[in-house]
Amino acid sequence: MPKEGVKLTEKPHLLTTEEIIKIARLFVKEGVSKIRLTGGEPTVRKDLPDIIFSLKQIEGLKTVAITTNGLVLTKQLVALQKAGLDIINVSLDTLVAEKYEKITRRKGWNRVIMGIDLALQLGYNPVKVNCVVMKDFNEDEIVDFVRFTKDRRVDIRFIEYMPFTGNKWEVDKLIPYKSMLKVIHAVWPDFHPLDNAPNDTSKVTKDKLAL
């Protein structure tokens, strides 16, 4: 999060609930069977339960998912599940509270972990956790994230940092996929990728990690 924050889109420029459902129907009509609500942050919308419920009424739509920062899951998840939410992805780039506060410029790491645990208690199996790996920030936590799966039924998805600044490609913080795999192999030599489905955008491993 930049120091100066981000400029929020004015409400008149946001899609209404009705517009979202209308667009979703058009996509489902063309064969789409899964819709993911992401952002920005989808949980800032007060109508999120209504959106999910309406999406689940669309014939032919099999799955509704969200990708969230997880900050308000403990407050909203029960309602979202009742509305029909099928899958949860939580974005979490560190397992260290102080580092979380540094990169997000807010407190709340404990709330995110509590949100993940609540999702597991409510039967989401697995909960998917997205971690963007960055040089000089969290590359030393790759093994810790793998171990995080030992006591929780979560799938970790390690994501390469996308180093765009304007139209320039910068690689100062980039940790390539092969480097991540090398770190994991140093601790677990028998760690190997599984075969991926044709539509997968990540490489899945037998210990339920994605790179």
TrEMBL record:
The keyword Iron-sulfur applies. GO terms for biological process: Mo-molybdopterin cofactor biosynthetic process. Gene3D superfamilies: Aldolase class I. GO terms for molecular function: cyclic pyranopterin monophosphate synthase activity; GTP 3',8'-cyclase activity; iron-sulfur cluster binding; metal ion binding. Pfam families: Radical_SAM. Residues 1-190 form the Radical SAM core domain. The keyword Metal-binding applies. Pathway: Cofactor biosynthesis; molybdopterin biosynthesis. InterPro entries: Aldolase_TIM, Elp3/MiaA/NifB-like_rSAM, MoCo_biosynth_MoaA/MoaC, rSAM, rSAM_sf. Keywords: Iron, Iron-sulfur, Metal-binding, Molybdenum cofactor biosynthesis, S-adenosyl-L-methionine. PANTHER family: MOLYBDENUM COFACTOR BIOSYNTHESIS PROTEIN 1 (PTHR22960:SF0), MOLYBDOPTERIN COFACTOR SYNTHESIS PROTEIN A (PTHR22960). This is Radical SAM core domain-containing protein.
